[in-house]
Design goal:
10 helices; 19% strand; single chain; two-stranded antiparallel sheet; 36% helix
Length: 271
Amino acid sequence: MAHRTRYATQDTVNGATAGTPQRVVARGETAPLRLFCFHHAGGSAWSFAGWDRRLGPGIEVVPVSLLPRSVSVPGSPGSVSTMDDLVREVAGRFAPAFDEPYALYGHSMGSLVAYGVAQRRLAAGRRPPACFVTGAHRAPHLPAPELTTDLSDTAALELLLGLGGAGRLLRENPRRMRAAVDRLRQDLLVSATYRHPAEGHRPLPCPVHVLHGSDDPLVPLAHAAAWDRHAAGPFSLRVMPGGHFFHKEHQGLFFEELRRTLRTAGAGQRR
């Protein structure tokens, strides 16, 4: 059993800037599986608020707060400008926790981060995830859609709103709107630095579960199904009703599916 702990980010505890170092707060309970969650482009660790409650006992949700991303001003202190750097930082920060049973969930851009972390673990001969779940992202060996060319503030905002990633509060709050647009632009630029290696990557030796929105305008079904190339073990694909943010549009169905997948993985860890 893994100790039930909470990886509390300094930004959630003190209201500081997202991406500052995280600390562990022991809670004395136990959970068989930790679920590390990686957010979509333009999002934050707050994207996973309330997931503990929705997934129930036995699964501890760890929303990962990523370092600030800065491609427009590379080398900015405390920031990263490439996907490799982002993955390296996350894998190093959570290395001790990854030595106990864990699963990975990435949504959209977060899928690339989660996949990169899993690959680094395999390359180092360390414990792989018990389960890898990806939502709203093409298989990593496929070329990315071009979303970063001359992306204006208006275009970035329309992308956020059109995909369902920004609600009424974002529309009505200019400061938050500006921050979200800037964050989205930088995240798209960082994602565009990803290059799938021609050799050296390994199929994941754990169950790989793909969730896909039936009306996703960015990810064709065939591109989601192509994740099977990266699974050495069980592979499954579930088409969910909704678009790129199907997990927000149909929360009941989404959490039921994720809960079932993770409980199966957690049970496997106890054998």
